[in-house]
Amino acid sequence: MNRFAERLAAEGVNLRRGHPEILQVNVGKVCNLTCVHCHVNAGPKRREIITRQTIDRIVNWLAKSDIPTVDLTGGAPEMIPDFRYFVEHVEGLRPPRKIIDRCNLTILLEPGYEGLAQFLATKKVEIVASMPCYSPENVNAQRGEGVFDGSIAALQLLNSLGYGIDPELPLHLVYNPVGAFLPPSQDELELDYKRELKKHFGIVFNNLYALTNLPIGRFASYLRHNCKLEEYMQLLIRAFNPATVSGLMCRNTISVGWRGEVYDCDFNQQLGMQWSGNSGSKLFLWDIDPNSLEARVIMTGDHCFGCTAGAGSSCGGAIRSLS
To answer: What b/e string do you get for 89-128 counting C-beta neighbours within 10 Å, with b at 16 or more?
Structure first.
């Protein structure tokens, strides 16, 4: 039973793709952190990593498209051996593409990654950084002891390079709830973050993205362990907001896995909801024509209520204002 599809039908909504504007590549599941909310189940012991051959095939495909934005995520995307290779080859495309790095901040200070922040600044890579709170207690509870201090040091390093200050070096932060509840107003929370981080640490940034935790991966395991999975699902279902559907990221984003396989979004990717062709064969990026994707039906499941609850949730934060 797909309760989300039933709800869309009841609302008279036919969820289909628009023109692709973002290519989001999950380059692997290796990460230096093991966060409670992680829907990817990423961690230091994971071995799924994109190969250089797959990177080349993705870049060659991208060169034939007009998709303007490449969004690199993981795990910690910077930990794959060919991260800089990937960035440099996307940077070399014409017309130019915007590159986003979804960074956990602490990786910028790890041994062996010296100069990484400077590399990102030189290549003018936009940084979207996880920062679940402006207080150490909540951050360390969700992401591990000492992560808050490391995140603050990394943000100060990025500010020193011009991130959050220079218009060509955008720095955005990401908030995730630390429990089974919806994010508060993104606009109000952003004001709190900016005030507290500036006052206590001298840190500035551009925008705050408030994301809803989806009930999959490690967060789903946390909910099951605490007997809260169905309770959280009911919270999401009750908070369904049809006004968010038009802004869902699955409508303009192609999600690609570390082997080059294709999905509607990163959440579908973690659930194995890979695209299939007319013959039933699984599709990879190089099998599809980016100009033939408009009106393609989007694969959904109960987890999609997480993106349509309250103000909605996308890779760019809330979809609608709560006010």
So the answer is: bbeeeeeebebbbbbbbbbbbeeebeebbebbbeeebbbb
Indicate the residue type of 116. Answer: L
Q: Give the whole-angstrom CA distance, residue 318 versus residue 299.
A: 21
Give me the residue spans of the domains in the chain.
Answer: 3-308
Tell me the per-residue pLDDT of 204-247, one tens digit each, with 9 for 90 and over: 999 999 999 999 988 899 999 999 999 999 999 999 999 999 99
C-alpha 20/C-alpha 294 separation (Å) is 8
E strands in 8-86 = 22-26, 69-73
Identify which of 82, 81, 72 has the alpha carbon closest to the alpha carbon of residue 103.
72
| Residue at token pair 């999959």 | 216
Fold of 3-308: TIM Barrel (3.20.20)
Average pLDDT for the chain: 94
Instruction: Taking each helix axis as running N to C, give the angle between helix 229-238 and helix 217-225, from 0 to 180 degrees, rounded to the nearest 10.
Output: 120
